[in-house]
Design goal:
Rossmann fold; 8 strands; about 35% helix; eight-stranded mixed beta sheet
Length: about 300
Amino acid sequence: MTLHPQIAEALQKLAAANLPPIHALTPEEGREQMRAVIQARGSVPEPIRRAEDRAISGPAGAIPVRLYWPEAEAPLPVLVYYHGGGHVIGDLDTHDVICRNLAAGAGALVMAVDYRMGPEHRFPAAVEDSWAALQWIAGEAAALGGDPSRMVVAGDSAGGNLAAVMAVMARDAGGPALRAQLLIYPVADYGLVGDSFAQFDQGFGPLTRAAMEWFRGHYLRTPADAEDWRASPIRAASLAGLPPALFVVAGCDVLHDDSVRYADALRAAGVPVDWRFYSGMIHGFFGMTPMIDDAVDAQRVVCAELRRLLA
């Protein structure tokens, strides 16, 4: 599979910056590099009514969250967004434009969650914070102008992993009731299996197998944690009864096969799956608006589907 010309051009510009690979950095250096790369894009988000930072109660202290209200009338559907970054890098600011665009496009109250990350706070800290945040918004949605009966969990990469795990936890706990799960090139299995890890390892953007091993090494406590379904949702004992899944998949991504395998497993369990595939795209493309046409299209398609599911 070949790269889309717009992605090839973007990767040439990235190469000219001569940035070190993620696996050669410390976690803090990786965080700073991600912030710098995303800030350099200069993306301008869609307008919304307002955004507000809050700190909510979590199992180990306060969890920072950011709430986004669209220019729409209450009660609003609710979307809980978990950012990507391998459970090590990424924050509320790196995914701010995505969240604003989803709030505006889907007409939803969006809550972004700044969960604890490794290596300072290893698995399952991110899962615990993500679950606490989901429970909080389910209880507070009505007071915030949201409708707790119309909720979606969403995320990209590591955030897609957490969204998938939240869907299983919510099913097992008998709620919160979820209308859907939006999984944008998620990490489904920290065993790092699949041909795509070799096929797209070099020349297809910063996410390589070495980078994934770096993320895994900083996130998990031991290799055995990869067998825990809360780290690798594809390993859950049952996927039956989960909310419909909307996948956004990049064709040239080391995590491509994770999406394929997880989508197949969900279908086999009777879960409706909507598959949106973007040939020639790389991991991370969803946030590369407006310079990548397929990123603009993917966000438009996702928002239209969310409006349908949350109507």
